[in-house]
Specification:
Four copies of one chain form a homotetramer. By secondary structure, chain A is an all-alpha fold. Chain A has two domains: 115 residues, Four Helix Bundle (Hemerythrin (Met), subunit A) (Up-down Bundle); 107 residues, Helix Hairpins (Orthogonal Bundle). In chain A, 74% of the residues lie in helices and 0% in strands. Chain A contains eleven helices and no strands. The longest helix of chain A is centred in the N-terminal third of the chain and has 28 residues. Chain A is flat. The relative contact order of chain A is 0.07. The interface between A and B is large, with 44 and 42 residues.
Chain lengths: 242, 242, 242, 242
């Protein structure tokens, strides 16, 4: 027989899976509601409907939260666990109607979506990702530090080239950093860009060096993921041989 | 002797290959015609010529369609198959002259171009791609979900930073999503960008995390493709040893 | 003793290397001269100096060209070879002073720079690149075709979404293609971008699919290059064992 | 007993680690101070505080510099070593108050941050990076050269297409190079972009070829790094077997 504990905490039974998916769906509904509320010029009836949906979702989340405490073996531990706190913060803003606008905390509900990855195959993919991250951790940290140093160097450089001609856009090294971020990530909004010959040549060199540094972590992560997959395969084979 | 069936359905005989390439060429001609028709200020003689080309291509496609039904072993199955339906939709808009503008359905002819990949070496490349996709499916789905969550989080964040200063560009979370898409994909049109210090720092952090997530699937796909090639090699060797 | 043939055609002797490097340097000088000439508002003395440099470089290139013919074993074959024709086109525009502006042909001198890669270690890198290209040829062609199809589909889609609101920027499918190129390569100049809600959502989906397709060839090439390096290693080992 | 030499030069003892981290922190403080100083409209009290912080950091750096000379086995060698010179340049601008603005030399302090990577695990990651760089050196140089050639070709091409219509933006080949850099790195600021049909088609082809060339080094570096990791693993195993 399937117990309530199994329905709430696991998803390998049919009712458990249905419960999980319904909760996921409700989180999405709640996030969409939250997004719609930010639209200006909403009609009063729409606002009212959104409010009713909010009451309904918070109601269900509250029951779910209490249920999870009820079925938890170690109740205190659950309340202070990562998911326990998120579940609490997801419903709390509704009950606290102080002067402060707590609505934005509702976006934390988003984090509850990660529960969806508890499914077996995804938990394996996450494990693989975790292994890949450990494999490449040092390179990633090294490249991240070098990226930061490069961002700072670019900012200082462009500040000296452009400050005189564009005092508004390159007001200080901090303002130049915004240019460095937008350029080295190749986003290039076009709100700030060098106009002096020196600044343009400097940009060229920074991009030549920078692209090879900012974009490498992505490649490292990708190859590490494929290595993690290989290790998994080898482990599986070793396990099967026994 | 080469039968009509071989000419129409296969491309390993010379007439079959010529038939296939002519049809591909005609599809391209038909798509170019369609594109030219969208040009404003076309002269009447040009319009007339385009119309005649359209009549000709549709005529040939109709004959080809009937021919394919004729040579198909299971006629009903072909009519309702993927390529059968595309072949039908490619000619249907021409014959139905209702009030509705059905011309855009003609772009479906594009999908007929995929028949070109029936050639042996490409079908192998597609198989390899298919294998790579299965290898990396879970990572791809995982990263796609995390990308969506990240897009939403970025939108919410930037909305709180920029809404007050730029109420027009960051009107609601939905409007902010457009910024999030253009930024995290590094397209950066420059129609919307943060102007507050908070928004700029937030963009920096989102880009640092985001680039490492949005760009990884590409790397995963590339390494999975090379692994699929290795598996193919191993299979071939195993086959040769027997 | 070192013959003239060795000096001109090879670079493993000291005079040969000096000859090669001097020629490379002169090509670069000639290209810089060519670029400076395009600057507007040049003073007359500068123009005169540039002209003298041009006379000098063309003079040396002519002597070199005649020398290469002289030392070639099969003279006719050299004249009609790839490098033979480039060497000719590099000096021809100077001698032909017809009404047509032939100066732009001088940029072909750039191609002569590829002779620099004749050095042993680079010729090995090029060979490796060649092997990588053959390894991944089918995937590259496949992805290139799919990229073209995707570009066309994006253009048609955005045309229907944006044509009504921005008749100037999205005048026809051809005009929309410019948007598709700038967007799917993530360049994003910002001269054309969707403004309708439909167009923005369409852009989102196209970018999600498109990035995973347009950027994959780069990854394929990179992994194929590392595989080519492995194959080389294996060949070397096999060779050493014998 | 821990000697002063160990504290200053090594970081495997507790006092050594604290000394190292304090110095790192002070460098960051000094760089932040330097950045804040570039802000316009600073109040006088802020300027004074910044000046005091500067005096303090330079004081500490001077003591550290003298200490490093004191504990060095070969004092002259240290003074003229890479880090020795950087340490000197980091404090020199403060003591020299000539007419020239030497403040920008203070950014060299940034390079002192690299001392942080002396920690064992990072020095291993750097070694790995070094090995990866040697593995892929030829490809990287080759691709860098081809990138330069491609940038030049793009500049020449776009100059001929756009110079007539946009004489201001594409004034000469040098001005066109700025466009080529911004486009082939996909930054796309949007300050210069082609407007003629020919220029747009040329851009399309250049991007198709260019992306596959400019972005490949990143991929090469990533795969080379993962290979370097494999070689390390093999070396470790070979070492353990002995």
């Amino acid at each position: 027989m399937i117990t309530i504990k199994q329905i709430i905490e696991e998803n390998d039974t049919k009712p458990g899976l249905i419960f999980d998916l319904s909760m996921q769906l409700l989180i999405v509904v709640s996030l969409v509601t939250f997004s719609i509320e930010t639209l200006p010029d909403l009609q009063l009836p729409t606002r009212t409907s959104l409010h009713y949906i909010e009451i309904f979702t918070v109601g269900v989340f509250t029951i779910e939260y209490l249920g999870r405490i009820f079925v938890a073996d170690r109740k205190i531990a659950f309340v202070f666990s990562f998911y326990g706190l998120i579940d609490l913060f997801a419903i709390l803003p509704f009950y606290l109607s102080t002067g402060v606008d707590l609505r934005s905390i509702r976006t934390l509900r988003l984090l509850r979506l990660f529960r969806a990855f508890k499914l077996f195959r995804y938990s394996r993919a996450i494990q693989r990702f975790h292994r890949a991250f450990i494999l490449a951790k040092e390179e990633l940290i090294l490249f991240f530090c070098v990226t930061l140093i490069l961002l700072f160097l670019s900012s200082v450089g462009i500040y000296y080239f452009e400050n005189q001609v564009q005092p508004e856009n390159f007001k200080s090294i901090f303002h130049s950093m915004w240019w460095a971020v937008a350029t080295l990530t190749t986003v290039g909004y076009g709100d700030v860009y060098p106009v002096t010959v020196g600044g343009k040549i400097f940009t060229f060199f920074m991009l030549m060096i920078g692209l090879g540094i900012v974009a490498v972590p992505t490649g490292i992560l990708a190859t590490a993921l494929s290595e993690a997959r290989n290790i998994e395969e080898i482990n599986k084979e070793t396990y099967n041989r026994k």
